[in-house]
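Is this the right way to post structure tokens for a design question? Let me know if I should format differently. Anyway, here goes:
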């Protein structure tokens, strides 16, 4: 090709490139200008609404104006319109406008939709859709979406359960300082879920979340110090973190703090304070605390002895399936303390606990049948059941059960 012809083609090429760049710049400038204008209009509508009486009429007027911006694909306006319809109970329109915003990459809308689908709030519960929107926002670096995505992988909601991927997304959110993710990541390291068990790393992440005031992490950190997991055992530090979480109303920490006061570990023994914290946790429905509170009332430990209240709290815990509470409740019905004596109910609760392998209940129900207290079974049946349950207790090393069995010539006894 002649040199002159080459330069002519080159000039045309450069000119074409220049035109394309110019067009792109014009479009980009127009887009920025348009976005700036839409944002200005959006802010004005918000200011007008804030300056009004904020009545239903004012909200409707604002929504109509926002609707114009929403139809121009301005995502904050789409979210506003969606929220308006949500408040009015029009969930179909709420879902429509939030989806419109999320489809344009609005991460706030995407996360909001994900949460709604996760819990069935305003929309039909759909874990697959929740997962879809979480991953959209998570890939854009939104910490709460990364955390929620981790939850999906951990629980197998909307996707196949995968602890390794759960850890991956928890870590992404944790590194951004998201306390919930830091705590969950700590749990994964503590239990060896998706990662090799590492108590030191568990403590590291619990501490990160605990320092932000997250009660769950504070309690977990307290457990690590109490048991010497990843850190040297230190009851004083355990108490410190339990107290932090307990004061926020976290039931597990309240129970654990009560245990520390009851045992005098990391703090001076004080049964009345133990009862105080057991009560706090028990009132939130924590079975272990309800059982310990029942024990405190039963023995007058830290509080005036009251068998009827002991029965009340043992019942609360027993109904949640706590074996020791079921056994203790059976004893109360057996003895008729704090409640009318009722052998059938004693058998019922002993059996519930015994079937869970609780050795005390196995011995008690075995002894119950051995002594022939039940009027509903003949002597043979009583003896058969006695041998069965006493043997179960003996298998766990109960010396009294072994003694009775040997006295009756049962070779199965140790």
């Amino acid at each position: 090709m002649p040199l002159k012809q080459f330069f002519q083609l080159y000039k045309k090429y450069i000119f074409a490139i220049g035109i394309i760049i110019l067009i792109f710049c014009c479009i980009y400038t127009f887009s920025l200008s348009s976005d700036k204008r839409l944002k200005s209009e959006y802010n004005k509508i918000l200011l007008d609404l804030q300056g009004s009486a904020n009545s239903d009429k004012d909200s409707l007027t604002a929504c109509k104006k926002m609707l114009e911006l929403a139809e121009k694909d301005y995502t904050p306006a789409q979210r506003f319109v969606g929220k308006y319809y949500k408040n009015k109970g029009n969930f179909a329109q709420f879902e429509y406008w939030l989806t419109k915003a999320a489809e344009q990459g609005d991460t706030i809308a995407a996360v909001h939709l994900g949460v709604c689908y996760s819990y069935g709030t305003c929309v039909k519960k759909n874990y697959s859709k929740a997962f879809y929107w979480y991953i959209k926002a998570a890939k854009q670096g939104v910490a709460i979406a990364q955390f929620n995505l981790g939850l999906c992988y951990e629980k197998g909601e909307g996707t196949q359960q995968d602890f390794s991927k759960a850890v991956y997304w928890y870590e992404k959110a944790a590194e951004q300082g998201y306390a919930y993710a830091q705590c969950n990541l700590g749990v994964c390291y503590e239990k060896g879920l998706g990662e090799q068990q590492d108590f030191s790393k568990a403590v590291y992440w619990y501490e990160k979340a605990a320092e932000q005031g997250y009660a769950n992490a504070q309690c977990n950190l307290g457990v690590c110090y109490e048991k010497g997991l990843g850190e040297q055992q230190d009851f004083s530090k355990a108490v410190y973190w339990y107290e932090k979480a307990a004061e926020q109303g976290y039931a597990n920490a309240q129970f654990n703090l009560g245990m520390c006061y009851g045992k005098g570990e990391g703090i001076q023994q004080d049964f009345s304070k133990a009862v105080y914290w057991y009560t706090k946790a028990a009132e939130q429905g924590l079975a272990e605390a309800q059982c310990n509170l029942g024990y405190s009332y039963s023995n007058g430990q830290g509080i005036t002895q009251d068998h009827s209240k002991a029965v009340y709290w043992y019942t609360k815990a027993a109904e949640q399936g706590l074996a020791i509470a079921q056994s203790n409740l059976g004893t109360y019905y057996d003895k008729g303390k704090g409640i009318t004596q009722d052998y059938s109910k004693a058998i019922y609760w002993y059996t519930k606990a015994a079937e869970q392998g609780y050795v005390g209940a196995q011995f008690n129900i075995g002894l119950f049948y051995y002594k022939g207290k039940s009027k509903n079974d003949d002597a043979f049946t009583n003896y058969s059941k006695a041998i069965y349950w006493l043997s179960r207790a003996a298998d766990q090393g109960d010396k009294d059960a072994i003694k009775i069995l040997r006295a009756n010539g049962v070779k199965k006894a140790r």
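Format looks fine. Someone answered above. Worth noting: Residues 25-32 have pLDDT under 50 and may be disordered. The two ends are 106 Å apart (CA to CA).
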